Amino acid sequence: MTEADSQKGVRLVLGMPVRTEIDDPSRQGKQYFKEVSPEDIAQYGDVLTYTLSLIFPNAGGPRSVYDLIPTHTTYISHSLLAPPGITYDPALNAIVGSIPITPTQIHQITYRVQVNITGTQEFHPPIINQACLHPYDSAPPLTCAFYSNEVKTPTYDFIKIYLPLVLRGN
Q1: Which of 99, 118, 126, 133 is 20 to 30 A from 30, comparing alpha carbons?
Q2: 148 secondary structure, DSSP code
Q3: What is the three-class DSSP state of 7?
């Protein structure tokens, strides 16, 4: 990673360069980055891994997390890897809890879900996920103070529409 990358908001997260810059001036000094793996077309039975990275360079005090499990997926039991205080709440179908924020420390929350939809040409909703962060302990929150970036996983590939090949004799 170069100095220019560092100035553009690229940081190393688990040894990988990750862009964490937030352009909104009201969020200056706080960084939230959500990612999904794999990034391919999701099909019924596929497993998606979501990771939320939290970096608070200048902040202190607890911050609560509310991360609703995406529609058209099912949380995979015991897949949550998170700091103490973060749990899966089956009644809310969400990852919830509070994280004590330590300046410059990277906190990561990772969990897996199984896709329970097959996209078709007629019905192909993307699987969308976004985490909510707020300064109070209620879950779900009445309003979110901050949101992570939104990640979308397509459930249908329109490019792979096969048309019959017609050969004409001359």
Answers
A1: 126
A2: P
A3: helix
